[in-house]
Write a structure and sequence with these properties.
The N and C termini lie far apart (about 45 Å). This protein has a single domain, classed as Nucleoside Triphosphate Pyrophosphohydrolase (Alpha-Beta Complex). Strands 1, 2, 3, 4, 5, 6, 7 and 8 form an 8-stranded mixed β-sheet that branches. A hairpin with a 2-residue loop joins strand 1 and strand 2. It contains 3 helices and 8 strands. The relative contact order is 0.25. It is globular. The chain has about 160 residues and is an alpha+beta fold. Belongs to the Nudix hydrolase family. NudJ subfamily.
Length: about 160
């Protein structure tokens, strides 16, 4: 039986490199502890850039300044109960130092810095295959200017 299409889940992720290391998180998932970029869902009323800044802060306690879009990625999971599609917008940029007094989101065990080689050697622990793909796209120089992304606010309908 085919499930009803409800549209993709829109997510954002951050690729942050510092001194040859990438900022990643270790998080609790239904499949156990997994490695991921700081990432999460777009919330109502947010722009994609606002969402990646918020998610990076919540999951790493580092402020994030997006500089470019690395790519958009669509992943489809066919599950017995329902199919799920994720549309991920991955940004690259700079992270500041840790914000004092902030705590990580509940499911996050820790933020850590890993080299490309360490990420490549731990693929079996990645939350999804996109973790390494996004880093490799970043290393290949894939960048789209942030002004390529447009957010159109719809004014509420006024009825007489």
């Amino acid at each position: 039986m085919k499930s009803e299409y409800l549209g993709p889940h829109v997510t954002v992720a951050a690729v942050v490199e510092r001194d040859g290391r990438f900022l990643v998180i270790e998080e609790h998932t239904s499949a156990g502890l997994r490695i991921n970029q700081p990432a999460g869902h777009l919330e109502a009323g947010e722009t994609l850039v606002q969402a990646v800044v918020r998610e990076t802060l919540e999951e790493t306690v580092h402020r994030f300044e997006p500089e470019a879009l690395v790519g958009t990625y669509m992943t489809h999971f066919a599950r017995p109960s329902s199919d799920v599609t994720y549309l991920r917008f991955t940004f690259c940029g700079k992270a500041g130092e840790k914000v004092t007094g902030r705590v990580l989101d509940d499911s996050i065990v820790r933020a850590m810095w890993m080299t490309h080689e360490e990420l490549n050697a731990s693929v079996e622990r990645h939350r999804m295959l996109l973790v390494l793909k996004c880093v490799e796209d970043y290393l290949a120089g894939r960048r789209v200017a942030l002004d390529f992304i447009h957010t159109h606010s719809v004014a509420p309908v006024v009825r007489a």
